[in-house]
Each structure stands twice: as C-alpha cells, then as structure tokens.
Amino acid sequence: MLRFRNWAAMLLLLCLSFFTVVVSAAPAENDVKINSVRWSRTTDAVTGLINVRLILETSGPVEVDQFITKVPNWRIVLTLGGVRADNLVIPPSPDAAVVTKMSVVKSMTQHTHVILDFPGELNKDQYKISTVPADSKNKRPFQIIVDMQKTVKSGELNVLPGLKGKVIVVDPGHGGSDPGATGPLGTREKQLNLSLAMQVKADLEKAGAKVLMTRETDIDVFGPKATDREELWARVQVANFNQADIFISIHHNASANRNISGTSTYYYQKTTYDVMLAQDIQKEMLQTGGLPNFGVRPANFFVVKNATMPAALLEVGFLSNPQEEQLLGNFSFQQKMSQAIVVGINQFFNQVGKTLGE
Hints:
The protein has 7 helices and 16 strands. The chain is α/β, with parallel strands linked by helices. The protein has 2 domains: 2-151, Sandwich (Immunoglobulin-like); 167-355, Aminopeptidase (3-Layer(aba) Sandwich), CATH 3.40.630. Helix 2 (189-206) crosses helix 7 (331-355) and helix 4 runs antiparallel to helix 7. It is elongated. Helix 4 (274-289) links the parallel strand 14 (263-267) and strand 15.
C-alpha cells in the first residue's frame, strides 16, 4: 500500500515545517491509529554500514505516500491517509548520524504526516519504505517500515608496539538485571566479571593505555527493561563511538556438566587481527592460570561481531565447576589473570607492529 508522489508535494512540506507539535487528537471518522513507534539499529562490522529501522504499527491497513525534500533540511515525509496518532510516544533516534529525529503533524485533510530529518544529503539508495500486512496468526499488526543506511568508517588500528596511548574498551559481561551464570557455591558471574575487569583496567592504565569501561558498577548498560540486543548494542557502542583500538569482553563459563573446566577465548573474524588478538590473550591466560585449554574458537557472539575493531570474548574458567569456582573467586588468582590478559594484549600490539613492519 505504498504510493509515491512527485516533487510538487514540496509545497505541502513548506506548510508542515511550521508545525512541530505531535498530534494528540483526531476526528472520530479516522478509523486507523498509529499504535506504536519502534527503532532498531545494527552495524556491519566488516563494511561499517549502519542500518536504522523505523517500525510504525497501526490498527489497520494504511495507504502511504512519500517524498523527499531539501527544505528546511533533508527530509523524508510520509503521508498516512486517514490515520490518527493520539498521544503517540516517539522515542529518540538511535543514531543521529543516520537520522536526527522523527516528528508527527496533522494536516488539514485528515491525514497524518511522519517527518524524518537527516543530518546531510540523502540518496535514494540510502533508504527503503515498505508496508507489511497484518498477520493475525502471529499476532502481528499492519506495519510501515523505513530502513535507512549510512556507512561510517572505523578508526585505524594503532599499530605502534606497546600499550601506551592505546584506546581499549573493557566490557564486564552481564550485570544489573542479568546475573549471568551462578556457580554451585553461589558465585555470580556478573560480579566476578566486574571484579576481574576492574583489575584489568588498573593494570592497563599503569602501562599507559586509555581504558573505557562499559560498566563499572552492577548496572544494565542500556538501562532498565532493555532487550538483549539493546543491552549488547550499548556495550559495543562504547567501543565503536570512541573508535577504540580493541574491545575485550570478560566472562566466566558454565556447563550442565560440572566436570568440564578450562579457559577459552572467542573471536569473530571480521578484521585481519581478530584471531591474533584471541590467540595472544589465550596463550598468556593458559601459561599463568594453569587451567585446561578449552580453545580459541570462532563465534557469532554479538559483541565481537559488531565491534568495528579487533575484539575478543574471554571465558576465564568454568564457574559451574566447584573446584574452578573457588579458584576463580580467589583475589590472588584474579590478579594473576589480569596481568596475563594485559601481557597478551601487549603481545598483540607488538606482533601487529612487527607484521606491518613498524
């Protein structure tokens, strides 16, 4: 139910630009209502392509006209025929680099206009507008979907040897409403992750690195009532926004089999250096910790896949193993493992420098 208007619709926008108030009421003859507004955001770590999706859910089918204008700035204007938007809550854009804001205004002809403002020039290949029919079987209402894209270059990896001046993001896994694994003795993974991560931060800073933490207390990084994807994305965003050199996520493993033990490191091969980072850290943790080698493994984990720089997710040991749980909670052992992680990171930068002839 998507229709396209010609550029003559510019005149309508000039009138609309005088209104910025969200619609709060509409005549009773308007039978269809916008019930909700949702955003999502993803990044392709390989290409740097950011995808922002806007989903409008309505109470019934809607005819949609659309046009683009440059006045007063680059905008997409959607005209929804015979639709009202009573007391509509509009969340902020998830990425102002792609779309700065959304507003809703009411026209004199009983239509609702959804206006999307952009920070710069908008090309036709940067957006797509579609409608999705309602599906009563899957309890899905009629949807209007706007997909918007923009490519953002990631920062260049600082290949100079050593840790001085490197920007490193350390992510203590889980936290807040998400406890992670719980050991048979009651140890909570989220607390163990944070304890070790804070030691890694201190040791890295002693070596001259700039360390950014996704969390330093027992909190949800995105905030209350976030989806799993929103929470994970908030962690990755700390690294991508600050163009960090590497991203490290610290975890402790668990299994239904309490006899399984060992140290493992995970990566997603999106850059030349992801596996190298994982191997260097894993090697040092094994030599220092003395736990079984559970392997360096590729994985489709969200945080290592969506971080635009080399990234590794560490599983220091198995919290589900009673003997290993006691060891992992020992402060002296945590200190040793923190130093091992830092040595591994340092070795990584030294190795990259040699590989590139620096």
